[in-house]
Amino acid sequence: MVSGLQEALGVTLPTDLEAPETRQVLLDLCTKHNVNCPAPHTPARLLDKLVGEFLEEQCVNPTFICDHPQLMSPLAK
């Protein structure tokens, strides 16, 4: 999932998705690409909005988006 998003956006995201600086990077990407993300601006929420905008729109048939980060799946922690 993260690698697909990096490819779609042409950026390299930080490896620690829970770090405070990662939240700012994701927020800047949302602002740059006009992706609306209501508060609270958590890394998981920002990442989900970016994935919805740039990856899910490309899915035309039944598709599995794999390797979700742990911060997006609280039950997997």
From TrEMBL:
Protein origin, superkingdom: Eukaryota
GO biological process, one term: lysyl-tRNA aminoacylation
Any one GO molecular function term: tRNA binding
Protein's UniProt keywords contain Nucleotide-binding: yes
Record-level GO cellular component terms: cytosol
InterPro entries associated with the record: aa-tRNA-synth_II/BPL/LPL
Keywords: Aminoacyl-tRNA synthetase, Ligase, Nucleotide-binding
Protein name per UniProt: Lysyl-tRNA synthetase
